[in-house]
Design brief:
This protein is of the alpha/beta class. A 5-stranded parallel beta sheet has the order 3-2-1-4-5, with helices on both faces. Helix 3 packs across helix 5. The two termini are about 30 Å apart.
C-alpha cells in the first residue's frame, strides 16, 4: 500500500485529530505510504444575470484561496508527523474526480469519511459512498465521522 488517497469534504472541520486523518496517519506510518489529500470543489457555474461576473469571480477566487490554505495547513501538520503528504484541490464532480485522481496517481487505497444517515436521507441526496462502491475498482476504507 504505497499510495493512499484521502477525500476531504469539510476542509475546515478536519484536523490532525479527526478520525479520518488519524486513521490515515496510522496506515501511512505502518506502510511508509504516500498520502494524497484530495478536496473537490464544484465546477464554476454561470452567474445569474443580476450579479457582476467580476465580483463573483473575485468571491470565488477568495474562497478557493481559503480552501487551498486550509488544505495546505493540514498537509503541513501531517508532514510534521513525518508523513509524505501532498494536498490536491480539484474542481469537478465528486465521484468522477475521485475516480480520475485515483487512476492518475495509481492509488492503492481510498479513504473516505462516512456519515451515518437513514435511508430517507439517501433517497433524497446522492450517496458518494454508494456511487464510488459501484464504480471504483480500488479498495475503499470508510472511517465513521462523529458529529
Amino acid at each position: 500500500m504505497k499510495n493512499i488517497l484521502v477525500a476531504i469534504d469539510d476542509h475546515e472541520a478536519i484536523t490532525v485529530a479527526s478520525p479520518i486523518v488519524a486513521r490515515t496517519l496510522e496506515l501511512a506510518t505502518a506502510f511508509s505510504s504516500k498520502v494524497w489529500l484530495l478536496h473537490i470543489v464544484p465546477p464554476a457555474r454561470q452567474p445569474p444575470f443580476n450579479i457582476d461576473k467580476d465580483v463573483l469571480r473575485k468571491e470565488m477566487a477568495g474562497e478557493l484561496r481559503h480552501e487551498h490554505k486550509s488544505l495546505q495547513h493540514l498537509a503541513q501538520s501531517l508532514r510534521e508527523r513525518h508523513a509524505d503528504v501532498t494536498a490536491l484541490l480539484v474542481e469537478g464532480a465528486i465521484i468522477r474526480s475521485i475516480l480520475d485522481e485515483s487512476e492518475r496517481l495509481d492509488i492503492d487505497l481510498i479513504v473516505l469519511g462516512c456519515h451515518r444517515h437513514g435511508l430517507l436521507y439517501g433517497a433524497l441526496t446522492e450517496f458518494t459512498e454508494e456511487g464510488l462502491l459501484s464504480k471504483c475498482p480500488r479498495p475503499i476504507m470508510f472511517v465513521p465521522i462523529t458529529e
